[in-house]
Amino acid sequence: MRNTAVTADDGVRLWASRSGRGTPNTPPLVLCHGGPGLWDMSEDVARMFDSRTAVVRWDQRGCGRSEPCAGPWTTERFVADLDAVRRHFALERPVLLGHSWGASLALSYALAHPDRVAALVYVSGIGIGPDADWHGAYEANLLARLGEDPGRLARWRELPGDSRERAVLQWSAEFVDRKRAVEHAERMADPWFPINFPCNQALNAEARQTAGTPARYAACQALDLPVLIVDGERDIRPRSAVDSLERALPRVRRVTLAGAGHLPWVEDPQGFREAVTTAMP
């Protein structure tokens, strides 16, 4: 594994890491983490595939190990940053694997630069419909999961929003296996970095403006790339929200992993590995 700094076209430095070996017949894999405002937590995913191909991970602008900055917090800017990562590692047409918010970012990149992408793997996203398709149900499901342990829910409610403990408790709701949920969430928070809330708020507000628009549907309908959608069946974000994207894409396949939540590679690593491998040309 080799860590490096990628310089974006406006001079901001982005943390990135490359592992594995590239082969002439297998395109490299670039991982786009969730958030927005978080950092890469996908080292386990990289290990699944770095015996097959080169794998690149990176921390998005102003987040995690990347240089602190004042933005700008726009999808267009993050797409340009992802292209800087691609160019830094001389990746001609990688497979993009985006998780959660990173799935939306990877989709936006593919829509902007389809000639620079071999395939798209869209993991645990929220589709392209309006917020009403998923957000209310997500909040209700989050409280229900946390409420299975009333003490855990009460503690989550009393903690400040920027505390590591609160994040771990909230992330524990992402896992189906309730006995190991906090353990899995603790791994997500190691190492721990401050959450970039201005980034989170700005990008979420932008997403609400573009979700469900005719332009978004039309762009997806015109995307001539193979796309794999991977869902954890028991994600607390309703999987029906992703139907909007599945219906729009002309070249799409969908795999739903039973018994897995929002991070399906944690709870069904074999199923996740098999699904993603089929998407790598």
Give an account of the 3D structure.
The protein has 281 residues and is α/β, with parallel strands linked by helices. It has 2 domains: 2-130 and 194-278, Alpha/Beta hydrolase fold, catalytic domain (Rossmann fold), CATH 3.40.50.1820; 136-188, no CATH class. Helix content is 41%, strand content 15%. The protein has an 8-stranded mixed β-sheet with strand order 1-2-4-3-5-6-7-8, sandwiched between helices. Helix 10 links the parallel strand 7 and strand 8. Helix 5 packs antiparallel against helix 6 and helix 6 (164-172) packs across helix 7. The protein is globular, with a radius of gyration of 18 Å.
CATH class of the largest domain: Alpha Beta
Report the CATH architecture of the largest domain. 3-Layer(aba) Sandwich
Strand proportion, as a percent range, falls in 15-25%
Q: Characterize the overall form.
A: globular
Low-confidence blocks of residues:
none
Order the strands across the largest sheet as they lie in space.
1-2-4-3-5-6-7-8
**How many individual helices?**
12
User: Secondary-structure element order, as H and E?
Assistant: EEEHEHEHEHHHHHHEHEHH
CATH domain fold name of the largest domain = Rossmann fold
Termini, distance in Å?
23 Å
Give the number of DSSP strands.
8
- Rounded to the nearest angstrom, the radius of gyration is 18 Å
**Average pLDDT metric:** 97
Question: Describe the biggest sheet?
Answer: 8 strands, mixed
- CATH superfamily label of the largest domain: Alpha/Beta hydrolase fold, catalytic domain
Question: How many structural domains in the coordinates?
Answer: 2
Secondary structural class: alpha/beta
The helicity comes to 40-55%
